[in-house]
């Protein structure tokens, strides 16, 4: 199968590398990463050791034939551009799947392409340490939905390539739950400068809990069922307690964060339905002002 991974940084390179064992995979990346992979292959570092894998990696999709599958792994703030760009090369048979954090990717990527659109979420943990090099921290589970032929096909491709993957009948709950976890953990790690485990203790726990319950109220008002959101957030913080959140890593590197697609979307949706979210509104403004202070952004 011909598979294109669009926006291959950390997660996209890891996914593309694993799929390349069974499929004809092309990564679409920025030039430094594409040059490094084209010259020396992708160096994959994990607890199993280091492996160099040779993959096709390009910087543009101009002139490409329609692939069988496109997996979008850009940051959520690039989803709209990604959707516009890939729409130039797809045909009726191309399946398009987004594997990103945040809310709104479904609208930009999956719903936009109708029955060929699939939305996904993953608990994998990957860091790009330099162009051409990634570190796998955890294998994780990847879920796809809504439950239909396209989602089942993508799930099957992932399982046969060695991923732990499933088609979820509750994909919107899964995506919301990840967004709630990100909204409850990530901004607090940025403000405190601490790893994810900080939200398990005061003075951060009460703040994280409030952020969680506010966000969950918005999800529930949208008709999304959640089991025990604070328990889910706590479990994620426990499992990743020594990790630096992606938002803290972004701020430390002077990169734009996904705050607008996580907390910003929660606050925007809350406003639309009249749900008060003072803690999330404050966290949103604090992170935005920290981003602005960094002149590189
Ligand atoms: N890394 C992880 O462990 C996990 C990540 N996620 C989610 O997955 C998504 C991707 O994360 P991650 O891989 O870490 O992010 P990265 O920033 O490492 O990867 C995205 C890459 O896409 C590139 N890109 C964006 N637009 C284009 C384009 N038009 N052409 C070519 N390249 C492009 C970016 O370049 P540039 O930066 O120059 O714009 C960047 O290198 C996010 O939503 C994240 O929250 C979810 C679970 C775990
Ligand atoms: C789950 C968590 C918090 C793990 O670090 C994450 O998704 C992130 O850092 O963005």
Explained architecture:
By secondary structure, this protein is an alpha/beta fold. It has two domains: 166 residues, 3-Layer(aba) Sandwich (Rossmann fold); 125 residues, Orthogonal Bundle (N-(1-d-carboxylethyl)-l-norvaline Dehydrogenase, domain 2), CATH 1.10.1040.10. It contains eleven helices and twelve strands. The longest helix has 22 residues. The protein is globular. The mean pLDDT is 95. Bound molecules: NADPH dihydro-nicotinamide-adenine-dinucleotide phosphate (NDP) and ketopantoate. Ketopantoate binds next to helix 6.
Labels describing this entry:
297 residues, alpha/beta, N-(1-d-carboxylethyl)-l-norvaline Dehydrogenase, domain 2, 2 domains, eight-stranded mixed sheet, four-stranded mixed sheet, 11 helices, 12 strands, 44% helix, binds NADPH dihydro-nicotinamide-adenine-dinucleotide phosphate, binds ketopantoate
Q: In a few lines, what is going on in this structure?
A:
By secondary structure, the protein is of the alpha/beta class. It folds into two domains: 2-167, Rossmann fold; 172-296, N-(1-d-carboxylethyl)-l-norvaline Dehydrogenase, domain 2.
Assembly type of the chains comes to: single chain
Question: What share of residues are in beta strands?
Answer: 15-25%
Secondary structure tally, helices: 11
Radius of gyration over C-alpha positions, nearest whole angstrom: 19 Å
Using the coordinates above, name the CATH class of the largest domain. Answer: Alpha Beta
Secondary structure class reads: alpha/beta
Could you give the order of strands across the largest sheet?
5-2-1-6-7-8-11-12
- Here the CATH topology of the largest domain equals Rossmann fold
**Looking at this structure, what is the CATH superfamily of the largest domain?**
NAD(P)-binding Rossmann-like Domain
Shape: globular
């Amino acid at each position: 199968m011909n598979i294109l991974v669009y926006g291959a940084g950390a997660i996209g390179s890891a996914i593309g590398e694993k799929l390349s064992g069974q499929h004809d995979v092309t990564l679409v990346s920025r030039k430094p990463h594409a040059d490094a992979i084209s010259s020396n292959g992708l160096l994959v570092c994990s607890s199993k050791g280091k492996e160099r894998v040779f993959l096709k990696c390009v910087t543009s999709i101009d002139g490409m034939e329609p692939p069988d599958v496109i997996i979008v792994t850009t940051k959520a703030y690039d989803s709209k551009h990604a959707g516009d760009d890939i729409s130039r090369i797809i045909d009726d048979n191309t399946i398009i799947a987004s594997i990103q954090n945040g809310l709104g990717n479904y609208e930009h990527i999956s719903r936009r392409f109708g029955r060929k659109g699939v939305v996904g979420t993953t608990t994998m943990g990957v860091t790009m340490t330099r162009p051409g090099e990634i570190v796998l921290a955890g294998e994780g589970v990847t879920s796809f939905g809504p439950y239909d032929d396209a989602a089942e096909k993508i799930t099957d491709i992932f399982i046969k390539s060695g991923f732990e993957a499933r088609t979820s009948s509750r994909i919107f709950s899964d995506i919301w739950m990840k967004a709630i976890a990100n909204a409850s953990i990530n901004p607090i790690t940025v403000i405190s400068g601490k790893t994810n485990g900080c939200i398990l203790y005061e003075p951060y726990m009460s703040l994280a809990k409030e952020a969680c319950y506010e966000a969950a109220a918005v999800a529930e008002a949208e008709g999304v069922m959640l089991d025990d959101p604070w328990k889910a957030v706590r479990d994620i913080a426990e499992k990743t307690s020594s990790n630096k959140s992606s938002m803290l890593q972004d701020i430390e590197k002077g990169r734009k964060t996904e705050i607008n697609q996580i907390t910003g979307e929660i606050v925007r949706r809350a406003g639309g339905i009249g749900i008060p979210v003072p803690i999330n509104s404050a966290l949103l403004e604090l992170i935005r002002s920290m981003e602005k202070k960094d002149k590189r952004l």
